[in-house]
Each structure stands twice: as structure tokens, then as C-alpha cells.
Amino acid sequence: MKRGMVGALVVTGLLLGLALTGEGAALELRIMTGPQGGSWYPLGGAIAEILKQEVPGTSASVLPGAGIINIQGVETGQTEIGFGNSVSTADAIAGREPFKAQAKNVRQLATLYMQYFQIVVLDDAGIKSVADLKGKSIAVQPRGNTGEQMTRELLQVYGLSYKDMAKVSHVSYNDAVALMKDGHAQAFTLITTVPAASILDLASSRKIRMLSLSDDKFKELQKINSGYARREISKGIYPGVDYDVRQFGTYTHLMIRADLPEDLVYGITKALARNADSLGAVVKDVKGLTVKEMAFDVGVPYHPGALKFYKEAGALR
Fold first, then answer.
1. CB–CB of 176/188 below 8 Å?
2. Is 279 helix (H, G, I), strand (E, B) or coil?
3. Domain layout of the chain by residue ranges
4. Going by CATH, does the domain composed of 24-113+251-312 fall within 2.60.120.1440?
5. Could you tell me the CATH superfamily of domain 116-249?
6. CA 15, CA 4: separation in Å to the nearest integer?
């Protein structure tokens, strides 16, 4: 190879390195996760460690967030990677409510697992169905959380809204449990894995019930968002809940900025695939995650770097 060509390649490499790392510093990969008490926050920490060890020239940090807020973070470049719920991200790509415009900078990185929407109520509150929430005090997540959006849409198919509640507290999982324990809220809604640590905490001091969603109401819910999937929580998972609970859910996935270099995203995807077992040690729902499952299409366009890895791995054609 001629000296001039070598020199050009070296200069090109240096410029690319400076563009990525900011004059020699490691490229910061910010990861927006979820509220403390949920599964996203610790899982984000595990992913950050993998990226720091497996992707040369990078560092990683974890930020709190929520499904809808994280989409906005990725779209505007406030974060490089974000946890998302597939139903919300698909809404953002299409420019549907609650989003005001189509997301242009959001791409699919990896699908991780299914999350379950759950409604837990105090056993002595006389709440047997969602319709019975009328006039009660409920705890939901702050706006910007997919679980909060799901709560509003679920109430809608029952002809209810927040105005029909005695009180609505927009709080974290941990604060919701505290309100329930003290009797200041009679119901708590959330979207997370099963069993949810927050519900187990509540059940350790209060007798609880879990609410199911009927088939006809689920069909109405799908008319609002076709991305919702039927899920069942088996009896015995939560103390005192000796019956199957029929609810709905959505996939948890990782989204990434479209404007990140293909080679970088390829390396990130490969690192996650090689270390999927360690993620399963943090959140059991990720246990046994395969490359094919990571490549599952949730209706969000793939980043070219992720797509390249999945095709090379034989997970996609």
C-alpha cells in the first residue's frame, strides 16, 4: 500500500475517532431506563457494564426514564439508547398520539421480553373489576410512562377517566406501594415483569387482589392500539392470588439513535447477544434470550448496524 494512502487512512481513522469520542475521551453511551422499583433500571445497569467491557472506546451510564420519555430522549439526541415498550414506539414511528410528529431518529436495537400490565387492588376495597375503580383512589405512574398511557386507555374502554376517580396519584412504583400500604390508594397499575417486586412488597403486608380484563374489553382496547397482546398471570405467583389473571402486555425493546455509526451499533448488538445470559441473571424474563428473539420485529425500523449483525447471525434473512 502506498504511503499516501496509508496516511489518508490514518487521518480518516483519527477523524472518525475524534468524532465519536470527543478528542480521545470514551464515547458516552447514555441509556435511559425506567423508574426505580421496575425491571428496566437494574437491567440498564447490567447493559452498561457489558458495553463498557465489550465495546472499545466507549463508556456507559444509566439514566432514569420511562417508555414515552425515552422515545423523546432518543429522538432528540439526549440519549443514545433507550428502553421502550413496542406499542408506544410504534405510535411514535407512525406519529400517532400522544406524539405530535413522526419519530425520525429512533431505530430498533433489540427485543428483550414481554411485559405485563397489572392492576393490584386492596382485598378489602370491594373492587372486583375495572368498572369498580370509579370513586376510588388510584396510583399510576407519572405522565410520560407507557403504563400511565395504558391505564388511561384501559379506563376508556370501561367508559371511565381520571375524573371519575376520587384521587389519582402519579408516582413511582415504590411510592405507589407506600400509598397502598397506608390505605391512601386502593388500586395500583403498572407495566413490568411477573412477578413484580413492588407487588410482592405490597402483598407482604396487605391482602391483595389482581384484576382481569374480559375478552370483549380487550378487543375494544386493541381498537385503540393493535399492538397490545393478550397475557396471562398464572395463579400462585402472588400471595393469596389463587386464580389465573388475564391481562395484556407489550414487548420491552431497546431503541437506539439512527444517526449513530453502523459499525458502532453492530458492535453494541453483538456485545448484547454474546452476554445475554448475564442479563437473564438480572431479570429472569430475559433468561434464555436468543439472537432470533432479539431480532424479533416489533414494528420499529432496524438500525443498519443491528440489522447487519442479525443477518450475519442467521436470525433474519
1. yes
2. helix
3. 24-113+251-312, 116-249
4. no
5. Periplasmic binding protein-like II (3.40.190.10)
6. 16
Cell numbers for 264, please give them: 458502532
Kindly report the pTM of this predicted structure.
0.74
* 232, burial (CB in 10 Å: exposed 0-12, middle 13-18, buried 19+): middle
Contact (CB, 8 A) for 188 and 177: yes
Tell me whether the omega of the peptide bond preceding residue 98 falls within 30 degrees of 0, making it cis: yes
C-alpha distances out from residue 21 to 13, 56, 112, Å = 12, 11, 28
- Fold match, 24-113+251-312 / 116-249: yes
Contacts (Cβ under 8 Å, ≥6 apart) of 100: none
Residue from 237, 238, 189, 183 nearest 213 by CA: 189
**Distance of CA 81 to CAs 114, 268, 303, 315, Å?**
19, 10, 12, 22
Tens digits of per-residue pLDDT, 172-220?
999 999 999 999 999 999 988 899 999 999 999 999 999 999 999 999 9
> What nine digits make up the cell of 117?
400490565
- Long-range CB contacts for residues 261-266, cutoff 8 Å, separation at least 24: 261/16, 261/20, 261/305, 262/303, 262/304, 262/305, 262/308, 263/305, 264/20, 264/27, 264/55, 264/58, 264/305, 265/109, 265/303, 265/304, 265/305, 265/306, 266/305, 266/306, 266/308, 266/309
Does the pLDDT at position 273 exceed 90? Answer: yes
Within 8 A by CB and 6+ apart from 126, the residues are 132
Q: Give 75-113 as a DSSP string.
A: HTTS-SEEEEEHHHHHHHHHT-TT-SS--SSEEEEEEEE
Extract the C-alpha cell encoding 192.
413490568
